[in-house]
Design a protein that fits this description.
about 25% helix, single chain, eight-stranded antiparallel sheet, alpha+beta, about 400 residues
């Protein structure tokens, strides 16, 4: 059984005060069980000021995490906070690891770190929680697919890091007080753990009924749909093309992608059209996949998050909830950017289950089979524009 505790601080500049606030909220450390680990999310300012380093040094357990542009735990207010959730157990085992520096989509550093961490467990891991770097030439699909091969399919719940700067230049993975732009950190959990996963993205009523087939693609670059240029396909659906060839509001109309392998569809954001007419997407879309075009705005962000939380609540119980949501959803909220965080805080205020909500640059979450429910066979997937939740 896992027990969870949370703490937060909004004090960025006074390191001693920030650490004292966290330690006071966590309370008596003697209540921690044999195995304990912490997950942390914060503005990059907490790294720069030294709060993260000092806090991790003060805590009697390992900590990994990420920078972000917004995070929430119970009772925290505002976006500029450092959030911490502590997992402790007598029968669940925890092992953390961070890779060596990465410069490209190379599996070797992941495999080495995974091997090191897995040897610390007496049982096969039941769950990975992954924080992957943004500033490495490697996609979310790479991390998902590589770790699935390396681990033999251990469920992987995680995110690509972002931060609160305009260009994410300070986005970093955090491990034991150090911040890395080019390393991947993860937690392995083994023992009596039965994670459940929930996702929310584009509501079905906002997805076009017209389906098409990807006929030309390479990784995350889509060139043709139904044998025609992707731009022509989008215009045919009603999107408007500018005089320079770009598509107006293209990133508000993501692809909903069916791999045609029996698993549930995933969302792929379109970022832009290249001068050659290819759509640059937020994840790989293989040739032969079936797509529909969806639409997401502020109302859809809130309605889908609320629906996912209601689904989880209806099932009852849980030691804690870990939640990651795409920055695309954050920006879709327009002049009320904190609305999704406020919704989560208010919804979770009705129970005593500890939780942490963090904004991400890409989401990793297993999906089940179509019609199979949450207990169906799981396949690890990379997601865009999606709210993901893991219930432990």
């Amino acid at each position: 059984m896992i027990k969870a505790y949370t703490a937060y601080t909004a004090e960025v500049d006074d390191v001693e005060t920030a650490v004292a606030e966290i330690m006071e909220q966590l309370g008596d450390m003697s209540r921690l069980r044999e195995n304990t680990v912490g997950l942390l999310a914060c503005y990059s300012d907490f790294v720069d000021s030294g709060v993260v380093k000092k806090l991790c040094a003060a805590l009697p357990f390992g900590v990994i995490g990420t920078t972000t542009l917004g995070s929430v735990i119970r009772d925290s207010e505002g976006r500029m906070t450092l959030s911490l959730i502590v997992l402790t157990s007598d029968d669940a085992e925890f092992a953390t690891a961070v890779t060596e520096p990465m410069t490209a989509a190379d599996e070797a550093p992941l495999a080495a770190a995974y091997g090191e961490a897995s040897r610390e467990l007496s049982v096969r891991p039941a769950l990975m929680v992954t924080f992957a770097p943004l500033h490495v030439n490697a996609s979310g699909d790479f991390y998902v697919d590589a770790f699935s091969r390396i681990s033999g399919g251990v469920p992987n719940f995680g995110m690509l890091t972002v931060d609160n700067t305009s260009d994410y230049s300070s986005a970093a993975v955090i491990c034991e007080g150090e911040a890395y732009a080019d390393r991947c950190a993860f937690l392995l959990i083994g023992g009596s753990v039965k994670p459940e996963f929930f996702t929310a993205s584009v509501p079905s009523e906002r997805v076009s009924a017209e389906k098409a087939v990807i006929t030309g693609s390479a990784g995350n670059m889509v060139s043709t749909v139904n044998g025609s240029p992707v731009a022509d396909y989008l215009v045919k659906l009603g999107l408007k093309k500018n005089t320079d060839g770009s598509i107006i509001g293209i990133n508000s109309f993501p692809f909903v992608v069916d791999y045609n392998d029996g698993t549930l569809p995933v969302v792929r954001v379109m970022f832009a059209l290249t001068p050659e007419g290819e759509a640059v997407c937020g994840g790989d879309i293989p040739e032969g996949a079936t797509i529909s075009v969806g639409h997401i705005d502020a109302d859809e962000v809130l309605s889908t998050t609320r629906a996912a939380l209601s689904d989880v609540a209806a099932r009852g119980g849980g030691a804690c909830f870990l939640m990651f949501s795409c920055v695309g959803r954050y920006f879709a909220l327009g002049h009320k950017p904190a609305a999704e965080m406020d919704l989560v805080r208010e919804f979770m205020g009705g129970n005593e289950i500890p939780f942490m909500f963090v904004y991400s640059g890409g989401e990793m979450c297993p999906v089940g089979q179509k019609g199979g429910g949450n207990g169906s066979t799981l396949t690890n997937r990379n997601h865009n524009d999606t709210f993901i939740l893991c219930r432990l």
